[in-house]
Every structure is written in structure tokens, then in C-alpha cells.
Fold this sequence. Notes:
Two copies of one chain form a homodimer. Chain A is of the alpha/beta class. The first copy, chain A, has two domains: about 5-140 and about 305-355 and about 390-400, Rossmann fold (3-Layer(aba) Sandwich); about 155-305 and about 365-385, Rossmann fold (3-Layer(aba) Sandwich), CATH 3.40.50.460. Chain A has helices spanning about 20-30, 45-50, 60-65, 90-100, 115-125, 125-130, 155-175, 195-200, 225-235, 275-285, 295-300, 305-325, 350-355, 375-380, and strands spanning about 5-10, 35-40, 55, 105-110, 135-140, 185-190, 215, 240-245, 290, 330-335, 345-350, 395, 400. A five-stranded mixed sheet of chain A has the order 3-2-1-4-5, with helices on both faces. Chain A has a four-stranded parallel sheet with strand order 7-8-6-9, sandwiched between helices. In chain A, strands 10-11 form a two-stranded antiparallel sheet. In chain A, helix 1 packs parallel to helix 12 (about 305-325). Residues about 260-265 of chain A have low confidence and may be disordered.
Amino acid sequence: MARKNAFYAQSGGVTAVINASAAGVIEAARDSKVIGKVYAGRNGIIGALTEDLIDTSKESKAAIAALRHTPGGAFGSCRYKLKNLETNRREYERLIEVFRAHDIGYFFYNGGGDSADTCLKVSQLAETMGYPIQAIHVPKTVDNDLPITDCSPGFGSVAKYTAVSIREAALDVMSMCATSTKVFVMEVMGRHAGWIAAAAGLAQEQEGDAPHIIVFPEIAFDQAKFLKKVQQAVKKYGYCVIAVSEGARYKDGTFLADAGSTDAFGHKQLGGVAPVLAQLVKNELGHKYHWAVPDYLQRSGRHLASATDLEQAYAVGRAAVTFAEQGKNAVMPAIVRGKGKKYAWSIGEAPLADVANVEKKMPRNFISKDGFGITDEARAYLLPLIQGEAEMPFKNGMPVHARLKLAPVTKKLKGKFSI
Amino acid sequence: MARKNAFYAQSGGVTAVINASAAGVIEAARDSKVIGKVYAGRNGIIGALTEDLIDTSKESKAAIAALRHTPGGAFGSCRYKLKNLETNRREYERLIEVFRAHDIGYFFYNGGGDSADTCLKVSQLAETMGYPIQAIHVPKTVDNDLPITDCSPGFGSVAKYTAVSIREAALDVMSMCATSTKVFVMEVMGRHAGWIAAAAGLAQEQEGDAPHIIVFPEIAFDQAKFLKKVQQAVKKYGYCVIAVSEGARYKDGTFLADAGSTDAFGHKQLGGVAPVLAQLVKNELGHKYHWAVPDYLQRSGRHLASATDLEQAYAVGRAAVTFAEQGKNAVMPAIVRGKGKKYAWSIGEAPLADVANVEKKMPRNFISKDGFGITDEARAYLLPLIQGEAEMPFKNGMPVHARLKLAPVTKKLKGKFSI
């Protein structure tokens, strides 16, 4: 039987370890007896639609291995969601045209919840349009909001970045608070789920440690309660360190900071809740403040990645190929947490239909009663995910990152496809 | 001869490695045959004025060693500048009262340019007020603006943090730019001197690498030229990454982002130039943007400290004690760069009178002709300072930081001193 080629694409916001998943897919496919070449979509699914494919077989073994320590999306990612077959049949026909031209029988899609939906639609192309293809979703999202999987690859690293960074900054604030900054606000990502905000809580090891307040998107912001807690911390410890989720919102659902613009998925583009909270503290309590918005630094901070997260990201990439070899379709490798006291994980299988468009929120029992901190349950869940410092080679003082050739696959189709 | 005790204090904004200098002072003093105990000022010089001293002899050897990997100011720092003797004789009399009560004959002051001025005033107490004391300044500032010394301990680490962070974030932006963020702005510290902004330039290794634009405080901001360059980068590379100094200003001297409030030294408190620039790009060119303000994260990022910087910070601490043992006064250990091709450094001696209140700006030949980048001269100066990854112990996924006892020295004076 002739080998079919595979298509691999990165989708949505990238992470510090999404390229480790790419390495997992490509290395496993190179070892595979059923998969031919792996063609990566340049800029994600757009590369498939525009027949802009990258021939990963042209990359050296060392270059693919270097993906394990390269943040960002090495082949380009995109925010582009396929519409329903009914609404946009043209796009699906084009996908099949490109897949057929390049003999693609496997579709590996590396993304979050929205991407799982796209992957599910592709997995149904045999039924809906008669093109035989196996579609496997490779989980990834810093937001940790994918269902079924115990955690989402990419999250452990941003969690570690966040916990370490707020701890370090808090030591800075603590040392200066007698005469300078008393309130420090750090904004973290997480539109609808407060997983990253919760991870900031790992910085706290003893009573009095920062962060003193976490503002979750899950808990309606109560200004009076918040200000009271700030004042209490300043009085008791001399300073107050706050982690706030970009998705923090009032009771009526409006975001504390709403930039107004929206992305391709219709999500509101947020940013800047930290200065809003800091200004509130200044206006109401008069304390000197500083604020930080690490933004992309947090999700691309490969230099501070979790070794556990890195291994999981790599493992789901390899597992996707194994699933394909086993003839599976419309599934996603999921991280399964062991039942024992000591943290252990293995790879399970999740049906895509149960993953697509489902958002996993933080359980309420992960958030402390007053709504401003994490519980022991949250700590027990989160702490294993930041274990280990992922190896990171440096040269001449700077990290070594993969520099790929990104050689294009010769186009076989005539005419252009505009997206 | 009876041993005199030493007073050590941290002053001004802290760094990722200022505690390494503290470890250097304390460890060298413990080895010394002329210095008794080291009393640290709680919250800097304020601790001396209020007789709030910390007995460092109560800290274990391991705790002092752990200062080498603990960011922030372990004994507390402050922004408090002693006025002239003529203006505020009361403060100097109080200092002498406290020093005499605790038999202090050595004054180690760990700070930047403003602090050097305070240290100089203390060094003159023998002449001006008849109290014999040797005052040695221990250099520290992320701003790298101290004169005479080749670099300021603290700077190499923030430089490394900045170069690595903007490189990582740029990989993120690059991978998404086809359909998402095209312009990314990262704000860095540096009120009057663009040293940290320049360090961002180290992320660039090849033509086309980020950052594509650096906005220095030394170069008056030219909006038209800036926007043109943004547009060129977006056109050529698909995206544009910008490093901007918090001190970026217009031709007339006004800051691009001016928060309006001032600190104890009369400096304007800045912050938020990144969103201002990002909004400008959006308004004028329409590109989707993201911005980051790492703020304290950059100067407390001990997990990403430069090994070279750490060793220099420790060395100036030890050298200060050696100077004291040699009977010196009103001096500062300075980093001296070797003349050879290969980077080497040693400790020299700088007279405090030449250090106090002098700000070292970037030489114009460190900034590219168009004002938006760094030159080979800048690279040759900066690159050695970020060499080596400073060892950082982790436990249970988090960094291990010193937890000091901070045991107070029993007060000997009656009455309170209000500052």
C-alpha cells in the first residue's frame, strides 16, 4: 500500500511548547511505516487553502529536534475558523483539491477549542464529501480550557512563567514598599477561564506571601470588596501584589478593560486591565502603584518552560501519529492524570465531538471562598504541571532557536484561492 | 585594636543581583580581621535614621549564600536622599548618633548615582562633623548610567532578560502575523539613558530579526519617521517588533507617556509608553497590535540573570570590604574592562566625587544613524555583559529564594526619629 502524506498545521495563539508537538508529529511520522511526508501548512490552515505547504522532509534531524526549545509557531499559525459546510462549501472543496493534489491522507491539527471544531469538520470529509482522510487533533492552548484532557499542553509553561515572575516581582515590591510602590498589579492571559491567574497563586508558599489578591474572570468583580482587601494587605504586609486575568469582568459581564476590537473568531480583543486596576487603587486608596502586562512574553517564555509541559506537548504530537497509524479518526490525544498520590500522566484518547467548542472553566472549589485566591485543591492540581525546568541551550548569552528552511512544496494546482 | 562594626544598606530601585552584592559584603566582612559585625539598614538608609538595624550575624552561612539567587532587596531598600548638611544637619547628627551607639566605622552603600551622592556626604562626616567613618559605595543600577565603571551591576541581567524576552515574543508575533498581530511593542526601563533599550537589540542576529525598531530616550521621537519605519518592516517582514524606552520623548523634552507623579528624588514616574505607541500605530496605519510592559519583572528576573553580571555584583561587594580594610574612604569599586579582544574584567577604584550625580548616557555611536537601532560598537560593548546563565536552584517547580531572619539589633537610643 502506498504511503499517504500528512498535513500538519498550527492554529490559534501559539505557546512556548507548541513546536515540541510539531517535533513529536514529524519525528514519529519519520519513524512511521504508513505515513509518507509531513507537509506543514504555512500559517496554519491558510497554507492548506492557498496550497502553501512546507516540506518538513527538507529539515534536518537537528532542526526538528531544535523545535523542542523554540517558542512561537515555527510554521506559522493563524486565527482562521472554517465555516460550516453549508455556509462555505467552497473552502472544503478547496481543501480536498489540495489534499488530493498532494496525496494527503492524514490531517494533524495543533490547536485549541476552536481548532478542534475545524479538525472535527475535516474528519467528516469522507462522509460529507467522499474524500477519505483521518483527522487527529493535537491539543494546545495556554488557556487550559480544553475539556477531557487533564491539562492543555502550553499551559504548564505559562503557569510556571506566571508563578515565577510574580514571585520575583513581589520580592522587588516588598523590598521597596516602605517608601515606594505599595501596590503591584500583574495582568495575565485567560479570556474566559482563570487558569493562568490561578497559577499565579503558586507563588504563595507561606502566609503573607504574594500574590495577596487574584482577580478571576469566573468571579464578578466587586470593587468594594477588592479595595478592602488591598487595604488589608497593605496594612498587614506593607504591600499588596495582585494578579488579574485579562478577562476580569463586572457582574453585568462587561470586561474591566475592553479594547473594543474583535478577532476572527469574534472574541473581543482585550488588554490593559492592569493599569485600570492600578489607577483604581491610586484613586480610591492613594497608594503608589506599578503594573506589568507581560502579554506575549508569558506564552512564549520558553526559557522558563515546565519540563512536564514540554514532555506532554511532545508526547501528544507523537501520540497523534500513533492514532493515525491505528486507523483512528476524529480523536485527540488527551493527558490522563494517574489516580495515585504521586503525580503521573499517560496519554488517553478523546473523541473530537466532545472536545470541539467546549470550554473547561475552573471548578468553583479551586477558588477560595472570598473569590480572591486559590484553594488547596487548585494547588494540588496545578503544582505538578510546573514541575521541572525544561532544558534550554544558550550560545553566546542568548537562547538557541531553530532556524528552519521552510522549503515550499511545489504547487500543483492552477489558479489562486483567495481566503 | 577593637573591631568596628559595619553598616550596609541597599538604596533605590533594586535589581536581580543586588543581593549578590550584599552576600559579597557580608561574606567578606565575616572573613575580615578588622570588621566586626555587619548591621544592615532595614529599608536602606531609613534603617540607620530610625535605628532599625538588622543583625546579619544572625543569618546562617547558607542564608547569606542564598542571597546570590534571590532578587529584590533582601534587607529592604528605599528612595530617600539625604539633603545637604546645611539644609538638614539634623539627619547627619542622627546618623552619627546611631553609628556611635552601634560602634559603626564602615558604611557600605549599595546604590546608583543618587546614592553615590549620599555615600559621598557620609564619607565627609569625619571632616564635617568629626565622626570618623569610611564610606564605600557599592555600585548597582539596572539603568547602567553610573560613570567610570564599565558597567553597573544589575544591568547585565536586565539586558539579558530584555534581549531574550523580546526574541521569544518576536517568534510568537512572527508566527501569527499573517492573520493576527502585526505590530508588537515592548516597553523597557531606562529613564534618561537607553541602555536597556539598546540591549533589546542583542535579540537581532540576522537581517530581518526583531527588534526592527528601538526607540531611545536619547533620540527625539520623530513620529513620521517612526511610522514610516513601522510600515517598511510590516511590508518587508510581515510584522514589526518595537522596543521602546520608558523615557522616550519628543523634541521638546516631554515624555511620550507621562504619568505626572514624581518620586522622592523628584523624578517623574513614568509608565505606559508601549500602549501609547501601539495606539499610534493602530490609528495611523491600522495594524493589529499587542504590547507588553514587563515593568518590575525585568529588573527582578533573577531566573534569567547573566552569570557575568552576578559575578560582578558579588565581586564589587567583596571589593568594598577590601577597600575598607585598606583604610580607603569615599571610593567605589568599579568594573574595569580588559583591553584585549576577549572580554575580561577586573575591579578598579573610582573616587566617589567623580561618581555622585553624574549620569552616563549612551555614546551616540552606539545608536544607528537613523536613530532606531544599535551599532556594532554597541553590540561589542553589550554582548559580554549577558554572557552565561547564572545558576538558579529550583525546588518543586519554583525558584528557591533566601528567607532571612532579619533579626533586629537591640535599640540603644531613646526617643524616636521621624523622617
